[in-house]
Design brief:
It is a single chain. The protein contains 4 helices and 53 strands. The longest helix is centred in the middle third of the chain and has 7 residues. It is globular.
């Protein structure tokens, strides 16, 4: 659950997964009277019904005075004598905000203002908060606007950072685009770009992703895959649609952020019959490093993206769309060191490329059209190489790709819709793997305080794997003025494991009175971990598909004084999770369970829009047939290495759990062009496995056993940011200071050689940042 307030300036995001979508308000003003102090009076009404609007908040910028409209919609504020202009703001929980209105104050003013109704969108449901609603409507996802996704330094680099303020969503570090939801693994999330599935769309191991705000036409987030059209996820689903260059989208844009810069261009030709959209983006830190005399044998991590679409309109709503994406990461580094044997050196190189080519033929879904649909074929080549030479030899190589056929079709009728479709893919991957168990654990974020990078267990494999996936779905929605329902069924077949599944999903919403809405939703989901090409645990054919079931329920209520509150909870169960049954050997024998509560509140006071949310999440796992741990080998009376130990299964905290999370954001449109906002986030630390007993090795040095799995937690997370933004017709500039209290936010740790002291790996210190976006 969460609340999103979209307006000029930074996005305010809270609890309850409700989005408040902007609709422009309009007004009529009449001038009358003259005198010393200038009295401004007015009358507020609903633009659709003409009914008076009471309890709206009216702020006068010149004096800071605040008043409320009466039962008849009337209000009155007083402007000091001699003022030439008056500036007011009008807000109401059920109507669109007028953040800044400038009036010439030649004399007393009498205003007639009408307010547009505000649209609410909830996870699984859309609610139109009208005085006399015609019907309710259902949607399985939250829409987030591209302008809001780029209103922040981290989100300027990647819109996935905009999700981290939502309840139930947690990440391991400030600069980590990978996130988990409800305590599930980040691998459980599914990502789509223009209808194609990407299991791991990240750049630089999670620092950011292939999504760039300057090329996003639609960004949709589903905390649970409630729509039967969604697949490949037991966690969240992110669907992104890029611009296709339609006439109303024409223009050029330059964007400069903390990590990367981009140029986007959208054009139409032949009177709109042909449209194009092109994005080019690259990180630039490595270029600056080289320009100032960086080491010749070092190439700092960098990434790039090229995305382009060409669309041919074929009369009416028909179109033919050709899409291309080329994306990559690379780095190279040489590190000098020393050991008992003398001077050493390690060379680390990394290269990764994600690409796609697609062709789609379809019918646009336009207002009043009964039918719509799309047929698409795509190919996604993939390559990833990692090599580390020296005393520690680690290497991974992945080569292959996926070919996909996708068909979606839908029809509107009366108060509902019916839709269905097919998604079929064939994947092939070749792999060459040679690395230590400890390196794999670190790369998968399984946080252990014990140094396992030299435990003697290597993961060595090479070969190829081919598999297919076919899924089809049917879904219907129906809505009236008091109830709405969405129900769907997805059937899937996984050739790699020879498994079939049926996944029902349903969402129900009911209105109680005019100010209370209840939502209940649930479903069963499955995914194949092998679809993530870079996951070493998923190359074996003996691993099953992962499954999950989840039930959510929430209630939203409008309270007196313009306060909106939403509260809810969830229950979740997972099974057939991959676990390490023996060193570097994985079996689908794990289970998981989680539950949680969320509450969010939005209110307006003296021109400030404030949102608050709190969430409690408890996520646990258990490994069968035993829990694998590592302890020193005491069999011959000498302690020199670690050996596996097999404990009876027990429930332990998920490594991705954030038990408590509190967020408060407040923002105000200070002037027509300038806005200011504050954001404070605090949360529990992530779990980790502590050390057990420490032993001195006979061969020299020290060694420690593992304690109970995930039985300790890192220090709590806390960050206070301040953000200032200037917006004009063709440009936007923001500056901000992150973590202004310089709180030490820990995302990992490492002990010294004798385990007597440890070092915290911290996130952001106090950090100023900027962002610039220009349209031309």
């Amino acid at each position: 659950m969460g609340i999103t307030m979209n307006g000029p300036g930074r996005v305010l995001r809270v609890a309850a997964y409700i989005a408040l979508i902007s609709i422009a308000s309009h007004f009529e003003a009449a001038l009358a009277g003259e005198g010393g102090e200038i009295v401004i009076t007015g009358h507020l009404s609903d633009c659709q019904t003409g009914e008076p609007v009471s309890l709206a908040v009216i702020d006068l910028f010149e004096t800071g005075a605040t008043t409320l409209s009466g039962n008849d919609g009337s209000f009155e504020v007083v402007l000091p004598a001699g003022a030439a202009l008056a500036h007011i703001a009008i807000t109401h929980v059920s109507f669109e905000q007028i953040p800044f209105m400038e009036l010439r104050a030649d004399g007393p003013l009498d205003l007639a203002i009408c307010l547009e109704t505000k649209l609410y969108e909830i996870s699984g449901i859309e609610v139109y908060a009208e005085v006399h609603p015609e019907r309710m409507s259902v949607s399985p996802r939250i829409e987030m606007k591209a302008d809001d996704l780029s209103s922040g330094t981290l989100s300027q680099a990647d819109p996935l950072y905009a999700l981290k303020d939502l309840p139930g969503v947690s990440s391991g570090a400030d600069f980590d685009g990978r996130f988990s939801i409800y305590g599930s693994s980040p691998d459980a999330n599914a990502f789509f770009l223009d209808g194609l599935y990407y299991s791991s769309p990240y750049h630089l191991g999670g620092l950011c992703s292939i999504y760039d705000p300057s090329n996003i036409k639609g960004f949709y987030f589903s905390p649970v895959p409630l729509s039967a059209s969604s697949h490949g996820a037991t966690g969240a689903v992110i669907e992104v649609e890029t611009y296709d260059g339609a006439a109303e989208e024409e223009g050029n844009e330059f964007s400069l952020g903390l990590l990367s810069s981009s140029v986007a261009s959208r054009r139409s030709f032949s009177e709109g019959a042909v449209t194009t959209s092109v994005l080019a983006r690259r990180s630039y830190i490595d270029l600056l490093y080289d320009a100032f005399g960086g080491a010749s044998n070092t190439q700092l991590p960098n990434f790039y993206d090229i995305q382009t679409n060409v669309v041919r309109r074929i009369g009416g709503r028909r179109y033919l769309k050709l899409g291309l994406l080329v994306s990559g990461d690379e780095s190279r580094m040489s590190m000098e060191g020393s050991s008992a044997e003398g001077e050493t050196a390690s060379d680390v190189t990394w290269y990764r490329s994600i690409s796609s080519m697609s062709l789609a033929y379809g019918y646009d879904r336009s207002k009043g059209a009964a039918w719509w649909g799309r047929a698409m074929i795509g190919y996604q080549p993939y390559r990833s190489n990692f090599d580390m030479s020296g005393n520690d030899l680690e290497s991974m190589g992945w080569y292959g790709g996926r070919t996909t056929l996708r068909i979606d079709v839908g029809r509107s009728y009366g108060r509902g819709t019916i839709s269905g479709g097919l998604y079929s893919s064939v994947s092939m991957i070749e792999y060459e793997l040679d690395f230590g168990r400890g390196f794999w654990l670190a790369s998968r974020n399984e946080n252990s305080a014990v140094r396992l990078d030299n435990d003697g267990y290597a993961f060595v494999a090479d070969g190829d794997n081919r598999w297919g996936y076919t899924g089809s779905y049917a879904e219907m929605t129906w809505a009236c003025d008091r109830i709405a329902v969405q129900a769907g069924l997805r059937g899937e077949y996984y050739s790699r494991t020879d498994e079939s599944s049926l996944s029902p999903r349903i969402s129900l919403q009911g209105r109680i009175g005019e100010k209370t809405v209840v939502l209940a939703s649930g479903g069963v989901f499955s995914r194949d971990g092998a679809e993530d090409f870079g996951n070493p645990a998923s190359i074996g054919s003996h691993l099953k598909t992962e499954k999950a079931a989840q039930f959510n329920m929430s209630l939203r209520r409008e309270l007196p004084g313009g306060v909106l509150v939403q509260a809810g909870g969830y229950l979740r169960s997972e099974w057939d999770l991959p676990v390490e049954a023996d060193p570097v050997i994985h079996e689908s024998m794990g289970k998981g369970r989680s539950r949680g509560l969320q509450i969010g509140m939005e209110f307006v006071s003296k021109g400030w829009e404030t949102v608050m949310s709190y969430s409690y999440n408890r996520a646990e796992r258990i490994d069968y047939p035993h829990t694998l741990t590592f302890r020193p080998d005491l069999s011959d009376g000498k302690v020199n290495g670690l050996v596996p130990a097999y404990d009876s299964p027990y429930w332990y905290a998920s490594p991705y759990q954030q038990k408590h999370s509190l967020m408060i954001e407040a923002g105000r449109q200070m002037t027509e062009h300038f806005s200011l906002s504050l954001a404070w986030n605090i949360g529990s630390g992530r779990p980790y496995t502590p050390i057990g007993e420490v032993y001195q090795r006979d061969a020299g040095g020290y060694i420690a056993s593992e304690g109970a799995r995930m039985s300790a937690t890192l220090p709590s997370f806390q960050r206070l940011d301040i953000h200032a933004e200037w917006r004009w017709e063709s440009a936007a500039l923001f500056v901000e200071v992150l973590n202004i209290t310089n709180h030490t936010n820990v995302f990992n740790q490492r002990y010294n050689e004798d385990y007597s002291a440890r070092t915290w790996f911290r996130g952001l210190p106090v950090m100023p940042a900027f962002g610039l976006r220009v349209s031309f």
